[in-house]
Amino acid sequence: MSSSVLDEQNFHHCCRLLLQQSEQLKDGWSWEAVQGSEEGYLRKTALRSVVTDSRPVWDHEGSSSESEPHTPCHTGLDQSGLVAPVDADSIEGDIDDEEDEGEDEGACTVSEGSSQVLQYEYHIVYSCSYCTPVLYFRASTLEGKSLSLEEVWSSVHPNFRLRLQNSPLNTITLQEHPLLGQPFFMLHPCRTEEFMRPVLQAAQDQHRPVNYVLSWLSVVGPVVGLDVPLKYSTQLHPTASLSSTKPD
Amino acid sequence: MADDKDVLRDVWFGRIPTCFTLNQDEVTEREAEPYYLLLPRVSYLTLVTDKVKKHFLKVMKAEDVEEMWFEYEGTPLKWHYPIGVLFDLHASNTVLPWSITVHFKNFPDRDLLHCPSSSVIEAHFMSSIKEADALKHKSQVVNDMQKKDHKQLWMGLQNDKFDQFWAMNRKLMEYSTEDGGFRYIPFRIYQTMSDRPFIQKLFRPVSPEGNVHTLGDLLKEMYPTALPNDGEPKRYQVVIHGIEPLLETPLQWLSEHLSHPDNFLHICIIPTPTD
User: How much is the pLDDT for A87?
Assistant: First the structure.
């Protein structure tokens, strides 16, 4: 893939690959088609144990959450990825540090605050305006009560929260789902090209194929509790896992 | 051209006479009178209804008041759609004034986006402008603008200042002559016959062979059901800003002159009324 944008055909292709792997890994993704057309989206639901802590971000400095080194939803991904242009070395270096390969449940085990089990629904939809995938999601309690934007914010790890808050367009907002018409939270796609470019360039330089959707998801997913198990990439390159620790 | 600039003004100053009535299940201290207002077609419900809220709050207790929302004949109205689009889509062939019901309870959060402040409306508006420019100019024009220029677009809309808005918006309507038009046309086609909220895809104003694409060409590609079959009576009306432009109209011209302030061409497909 020579450009940092994705056309719709390639999007479908990447989704098909992701689906095949998801089936083998039992990761729960499915393809939902729009009635009577080829258009559709990837969908996954997950239960997530979350600490709903509505304290403002600045109160978290020095809280015990920051001293937890292996909380899966942020380890290795505390990079300037979503807001500022990304340095390819910083992504790969951070991912190399990731040791929790076995943990694929997005459980933020922060000890402060009250813990709740929430039902999350994630959709990956193609944006033809930005030529990128876009992550939509909604969350509710097990009794079916929808989460508000404030509640969703409070379940985003403080490290991500600071980054997102600094740039209003790169943040989580409530939007109308373009195919379903219902309110969903969305991570704004206008900076996707910026952080994908070095990832794709590095892959091209090393003559490795890369699944755009998978790489993109591994960056944005963890921000909202969607973990992407490393087994997705080791499956793609069974020999690469021996020669290099760099995943796609 | 003098005529084309008149079109811009006519679009900007389009108004819909509306009657707001309080939902009869709301708890009031005395009877609420309806409130009449001329709504700008190109603005958003939550941006122009402060007076409506103040009017009904006079007869209600604070504890009975939650986020205000609007409904027309049972359909919750999406504040993030331009007012003119809501009217054309749901009420265009009905008697004026447009009768909207006002609610302060039971916000339908499976149908409507919350709108806690005008900064949410501003963010939504600017997001549309940026998306439109991504389609027209690969975001080059909007990214070259300064923050104060973006603010000027928003303030122009918020304060109903045509000249202030267009002083900046004209830059978003420029293109190089060799291109013959924008890269892609920002448009959305709305209909109420299916669940899908709108159709939005990539479409060029000029074909690779150099043929100018028309409104009819767009519909043929995106929503052929809207077009009449030869010899048959028209089943659907294709409505933009309350009028039915000729299908032969060049799409590039429509995009430059009949877009909303958000830089999108919003097209409503409604069943032809059977009198």
Answer: 33
